[in-house]
UniProtKB/TrEMBL annotation:
The lineage of its organism: Bacteria, Bacillati, Actinomycetota, Actinomycetes, Kitasatosporales. It holds the Pfam family ADH_N. CDD domains: MDR_like_2. This is NADP-dependent oxidoreductase. It comes from the Bacteria. Residues 16-302 form the Enoyl reductase (ER) domain.
Length: 305
């Protein structure tokens, strides 16, 4: 990249609703040691972005950049980076809640260990739906510690994280019960769920584990057999353990190696990514409005031209 010193980036300067989201002209970041800079082509808009915008994680008085997911190509590498060269198409996770710049920008700097080669079988706007949702689902399933043939109930199974979790769980040989809205039965069964549970109801028999993507808390814990496992996705929001149930709170981490495994599943046709709506970077505020729309199925994505 020659001669370009500024770029567009989505930021918030105060907390509130989508009206707080603006596109600012900021200095293009440079990669430090062990980092790569990515020319962003697409970036997912996740619930955590809405939470940052609303002030859930603090940062009052600061300009805060938004965006965790990214799909694009490397345009500069920092000192000591091996294995990555400019022009390589990648996906990655830019972890962090209160940060001056995120991936909702024309360029983003990530640790080299946080990126993986992009899927060959899907375009950037679809690939951008993978990093945060995929890594969250994969980590949550690993923390459940279930074995092939065990039963798992996944709440919020029609959502982005839940839908990926259903696919990964079914692929691992688990018997999957998907809890979702009544209109989502066909969808979640197509993703690999053996059983369907309408929202507001309970399974006929306790399950070995629950992955609580819908953050139902104590209600979902009640679905687990004595001595089973429960994994929540929001730190600090899990219910108190009872009946010998192992309760774990997962927090996603940037993991290029695990992301590469998930990319392989996408390219093998074993993992389907879903995009609900696509917005231009300039329309980031409208993307946040769409993010808050009930019943959204799939990831809202920003594209950068």
């Amino acid at each position: 990249m020659t001669g370009i010193e500024t770029m567009r980036a989505v930021v918030v300067d105060g907390f509130g609703g989508p009206e707080q989201v603006r596109v600012a002209e900021v200095e293009v970041p440079r990669p430090g040691a062990g980092q790569v800079r990515v020319r962003v082509r697409a970036a997912g808009v996740n619930p955590v972005d809405g939470a940052v915008r609303a002030g859930v994680f603090g940062g009052a008085g600061q300009r805060i950049g938004l965006g965790w997911d990214v799909a694009g190509e490397i345009d500069e590498v920092g000192q000591g980076v091996e294995g990555w060269t400019p022009g390589r198409r990648v996906v990655g996770l830019h972890y962090g809640t209160v940060k001056p710049l995120g991936t909702h920008a024309e360029y983003a700097v990530l640790d080299a260990s946080a990126v993986a080669a992009a899927p060959e079988s899907v375009e950037a706007a679809v690939a951008a739906a993978l990093p945060l949702s995929g890594l969250t689902a994969a980590r949550a399933l690993a923390l459940l510690g279930l074995a092939e043939g065990d039963s798992v109930l996944i709440t919020g199974a029609a959502g982005s994280v839940g839908g990926i979790a259903v696919q990964l769980a079914a692929r691992a040989g688990l018997t999957v019960t998907a809890l979702a809205g009544e209109g989502d039965e066909e969808l979640v069964r197509s993703l690999g769920a053996k059983e369907f549970l309408p929202r507001g109801s309970a399974p006929a028999e306790p399950v070995d584990g629950v992955l609580d993507a819908a953050v139902l808390g104590a209600a979902a814990l009640g679905f687990v057999r004595d001595g089973g496992a429960y994994v929540g996705l929001i730190p600090g929001a899990a219910p108190a353990a009872e009946r010998g149930v192992r309760v774990v709170e997962q927090e996603v981490a940037a993991d290029g190696a695990e992301l590469a495994r998930l990319v392989g599943l996408v390219d093998a046709g074993a993992l389907t990514l879903r995009v609900a709506r696509n917005f231009d970077l300039a329309d980031a505020a409208a993307a946040h409005e769409a993010l808050a729309t009930p019943g959204t199925r799939g990831r809202v994505v920003l594209t950068v031209s």
